[in-house]
Amino acid sequence: MQREQLAAFLRHRREAIDPAEAGIAAGPRRRTAGLRREEVAGLAGMSVDYVVRLEQGRSSRPSAGLLVALARALRLSDDEREHLFHLAGHQPAPGDGAARQARSGLVRMLGLLGSTPALVLSDLGEVLAQNRAAVLLTGDHTRHSGDSRYLVYRWFTDPAVRVVHPPEEHEHHSRQLVADLRASVGRRSGDPVVTGLVDRLRDASDHFRRLWAEHEVAVRRADRKTLLHPRVGRLLMDCETLVTPDRLQQLLVLTPADAEARERMELLSVLGTETFPAQAEGSSLR
């Protein structure tokens, strides 16, 4: 472990982050650039004291799990994340959906889209980042862990997830999710992360197993879907998906498909996030 280099790297990366990129309001009293240590600690789910000791070169070697959390909190690129692991004396974790971070360029686009809901997803449907408008519309999808990180897994294993779409659209969403997952399996042939997810879904859901056996393949590009929001009601939304050249990440942008949906999105922006029901955080999105 290279303590001094690790400490300097963490300090410089923390100071280089625009608070808005991390979803934190700058506020009138912020005197220094970047994030505060307590903000990094909150984003990474660790104590402020540990962040301080890391930045002062006084800590024990952080675990791989803590490094993943720090990389997410500091919005590190793939190269920066790999460097972080090496400084801490670890081999970089596999670049699957559990560890990859949303590309910095895509995260900046989330901010530029402003009041338009947008999310960054992995090719397996893990939400890596989302802007405030997306949180208002669909809830916070970045809080999940384990297989629940993946939208397709939640859709087929948690009935509460489906309440955000009208029943007549459920089969359509189910087929789209399965077809999109099969396309990822084809691109990542032999990847244990993907094959393991498929195996666990087949064990957990008869419905998934039946659809998987039909071998439908389709990469999601554009779609129109209805969201049943618990506070503003029914919204008809157009969904446009932009895929990175390596097909490992996607930018999903949702726009109102009619005047009624536009008015309800404006109302939702005013209402904010108070009392957002947890069961509503399950939109199939894709």
UniProtKB/TrEMBL annotation:
<protein>
    <submittedName>
        <fullName>Helix-turn-helix domain-containing protein</fullName>
    </submittedName>
</protein>
<dbReference type="GO" id="GO:0003677">
    <property type="term" value="F:DNA binding"/>
</dbReference>
<dbReference type="Pfam" id="PF17765">
    <property type="entry name" value="MLTR_LBD"/>
</dbReference>
<dbReference type="InterPro" id="IPR001387">
    <property type="entry name" value="Cro/C1-type_HTH"/>
</dbReference>
<feature type="domain" description="HTH cro/C1-type">
    <location>
        <begin position="33"/>
        <end position="81"/>
    </location>
</feature>
<dbReference type="InterPro" id="IPR041413">
    <property type="entry name" value="MLTR_LBD"/>
</dbReference>
<dbReference type="InterPro" id="IPR010982">
    <property type="entry name" value="Lambda_DNA-bd_dom_sf"/>
</dbReference>
<dbReference type="Pfam" id="PF13560">
    <property type="entry name" value="HTH_31"/>
</dbReference>
